[in-house]
Write a structure and sequence with these properties.
- This protein has 604 residues and is an alpha+beta fold.
- Among the domains are: 52 residues; 252 residues, no CATH class; 75 residues, no CATH class; 41 residues, no CATH class.
- Helices cover 35% and strands 14% of the residues.
- The strands form four sheets. Strands 1, 2, 3, 4, 5, 6, 7 and 12 form an eight-stranded mixed β-sheet that branches.
- α3 packs across α4.
Amino acid sequence: MKSSWVATQFLEVFKTRPHWPAKEIVETIRRAYKVLVKRDYAYKVKVHAHRKLHGSMKEHYGKLGSYLEALIQANPQSIFKINTDPSKAVFPHVFQRFFVCFNGIMQGWLAGGRKVLCVDSCFIKTFLGGMLLSAVGRDSNDQMYSLVWAMVEGENTASWEWFFYELKKVLGGGNGSDLTMISDEAQAILGGVAKIFPQAEHRHCARHVYAHWHKTYKGDEMKKLFWKAAKSYNEADLGDALTEMEKVNPESVVTFKKYNPKVFCRAHVKTHTKCDVIVNNMAETFNGYIIHARAKHIIFMLEDIRTALMQRMVIKRQIEKSTAKIYHRIQSMLEKEKYEAANCTPLPSSATLFQVAHKMDTLTVDLENRSCTCRKWDLVVCPVVMGLLVFSSSTMKLKTMLMNAIKEKLNYLKMYCGGVSPLTRERHWPKVDMPLDPPPIKIGPGRPRKSRIKDPHEDPKKSGKLTKHGVEMSCSVCKNKGHNKRTCPDKGKAMEPVPKKPYGRPRKDNSQPINTASSAPPPSHHETTAQPSRIGKNGRVVGKGRKKNTAPKKRMPQGVGVLFDGHGNTLINAPGQSGRPRVVSQMDRVVDQEWCPRWQQQHN
């Protein structure tokens, strides 16, 4: 029984399961043909099956010319480009790079997309290696919008400059004055953006900066302080966050400033793009979106990416059936801002200019220019706390107030009005004579690795799981941080239980006498709290408030029933009632005559 014949019998299985394990192949042959084979035989079957389905690598890369021509015919005015390796002057030429940008996606981004692009690279998981470079934007609903991508030989300065040069053609030229790029701190990306887009704003991913900073300054408290500083919308809040960080660890602030906060803090980003993003999550999302496609060779990988985005464009276009004027992500942001608006008090200065007291701060809000001193409204498309609050005090209509948010829906429909055209299988592709050799296999120095390079803090027993390195523990015995109850130095000692906080408002204890002889001298006016004075009747300043009546209250005995005073008046004495009794009525006849004073006078 030849392995090629067995491969032909199981071609349909290999189509659906390209990574069919050899162990299952052996078991399937045993049950189907009652023949025992070894694992080597199963691997031969697998090789023959994939060769019948996909051909050899030389045949696969030889189809790139036909695939390119089919893409151009199905998607005219799109940008596709193949580069060969100039260092290898042989025939046929050796494949090096492939750039892809569909016209429908390109026109949608130019018409309604925010001028923000996240660029990143990811590995292609085949034995030939290579990298996939991508530029991912954000649509009007703050979701992923993949603009361009390219397969290159590796992540280096030459490949990134070539990628940015092709991206510049997609954007219509220019020096990037209205563009914002977000990436990690790879030197090849930094140099490529500075060379091709010299006027573009280049933000560094705060998550990558934190990964380096956190290696020295660990703990949950330092993590919160870092992100509080990075997410501050203005320089005043940034300064307060750094001051708070300096109290915990002064060296952490010095290291924080060495990473240049102007490129990863919200307080320093430009406002023309209406985007407050300081992380590269959109590019990472795209890398995870195509993770299964990256395990295939170039034509099958590009086809999986094309079909996935073709379906995504159609699905996102269905939101036009919604009758809502504002999309759900923007609406949820507005609801959060409405809840926070309870902490603000507006004071009008004109029809569109307001002074707003927000917690312990005072800010200025301009409705006409849609800006605020805190800069949050300058960086997002919807009104924030102050803008929503002063709306009730202004004469502007809600439609005018939410003009930017409503405009975003129109931009959203423009972005997804186009699409990606379908493509036939290779038997219908035009015949193009463009032979290409696959790129050479990169063999590193030394013995090949059998296991991947693991994270320094990865658990060796559980693959892919990190240890609790850097997590600050808290002890349940002594309530201190840095250890748990198992290694607590006070373990076994009799610890006083923490007293529970009493319910209700605490009472003032006036029973202790005041010792005037040993009392401290009154503080100087320089140390007095700068609180405003209280104005009483006729404009007089009230110093210490109204004098309280320190005389003890007369309490009457508490009980249930009717009491009488010396004149025979009935009094009410309810349970728990204190103070002076309240007269209810006068009665001549009572049930219990022994307690009636009139009855006693008449019978004595």
